[in-house]
Structure prediction request, 197 residues.
Amino acid sequence: MTRKKIWSKTDNSMEWQKAQLRIKYLPKNARVLDLFCGNGEMYKRTYKDRVLKYHGTDKEKIHDPNICTLIDNTVYIAHNDILDYNVFDLDDYGTPWKVLYLILRKLTSGEITIFVTDGLVLHQKVDGTVTKFVSATERLPRKMNLPGINRFYVDIFGTMLKDIEKRYGWKTEKAVYFHNSQRTVYYWALKLKHSAH
Prediction:
């Protein structure tokens, strides 16, 4: 596979499987904040007519201005009340760990479901460089080059979840995932419960 092919971006690749993951783990009385909502493929396949409340955000494109906001996700989280949502969909092509941390730092109680599309392993495969969040959670020098680090992706993701529990009190009750055929993108369903420190 050429580098150009590795880096190509397919809008909602594996959309059927992604929708099924969401449908299977969608809680009752779901109130969804759909970050990176894009053209609304997951809304149409998963959330429409299945949830009590829905709002989408994206800085590039939104599928319905009546239920979505065209805005950077980090800005939206910082300046809006997100306490009424119990489902967060982080369907990014990059690595949405920063958005995940922002959400969990802001919320302080309850049980939530988070769907994560994570392309971290793609970056690890391409250049082996340790990102800022991996550096922090794994205690490795930032920008350190570790060939083959992608083999430890699931363990790295698990360490990040433990870091979230230690920092913010969000304990992982369930974490399931699948990946695309190239193992360049992983799709997660997380059930988290807040416990007092």
Summary: The radius of gyration is 16 Å. The chain has a mean pLDDT of 84. DSSP finds eight helices and seven strands in the chain. The first helix runs from residue 3 to 7.
